[in-house]
């Protein structure tokens, strides 16, 4: 951002100086100097760190990530989403959620060739034996009682019981006509 601002200020100042100057020699010298200045390439490097590092960055790196408590997470996507990337650069890296592996494009942008790093997964093996049954859980609480049902039909008559003991002798009755 600062480099762009510097270029813009120098370009505006150069334009103003050229307009103000009547001597073509100075104008040509200034224009040549500006052209030389603008032709110098700019190189940028970046360190992203949560460790407060002040070490100089390696000359062979454009980006360094430093952390002792965070991970680098590449873009995660399915195979279908990966195949939808238009012209992926050689060396592009993604995490394929279908294959469950980190993939790199070893092909060219027009003909990508995605390969899992570390060899990927092998074929699925046979299902293992069933494990032992777990312990029975505790019985749950009894539910609420339901509504009382209708009275059912009368059942068949039961067997007659044994004869009961004789009752006491009653009082003597009145004598009838003779």
Task: Throw out a few tags for this protein.
178 residues; alpha/beta; 4-stranded mixed β-sheet; two-stranded parallel sheet; 22% helix; rod-shaped
Overview of this protein structure:
The chain is α/β, with parallel strands linked by helices and 178 residues long. 22% of the residues lie in helices and 12% in strands. The protein has three helices and six strands. The chain has helices spanning 2-20, 24-39, 79-83, and strands at residues 46-49, 63-66, 76-77, 93-96, 101-105, 114-116. The chain has a four-stranded mixed β-sheet with strand order 3-4-5-6. A two-stranded parallel sheet has the order 1-2. Helix 1 runs antiparallel to helix 2. The N and C termini lie far apart (152 Å).
Topology:
Layout: H1 2-20, H2 24-39, E1 46-49, E2 63-66, E3 76-77, H3 79-83, E4 93-96, E5 101-105, E6 114-116
Parallel strand pairs: 1-2, 3-4
Antiparallel strand pairs: 4-5, 5-6
Helix pairs in contact: 1-2
Structure in a nutshell:
It is built from three helices and six strands; from the N terminus they run ααβββαβββ.
How far apart the termini lie comes to 152 Å
Helix content: 10-25%
Oligomer: single chain
Strand order of the largest sheet: 3-4-5-6
How many strands in all?
6
Q: Helical segment tally?
A: 3
Strand content is: 5-15%
Structural classification:
alpha/beta
Shape, principal axes of CA atoms: rod-shaped
Radius of gyration: 50 Å
How many strands, which pairing sense, and closed or not: the largest β-sheet? 4 strands, mixed
Low-confidence stretches: none
Question: Could you state the order of secondary-structure elements as H and E?
Answer: HHEEEHEEE
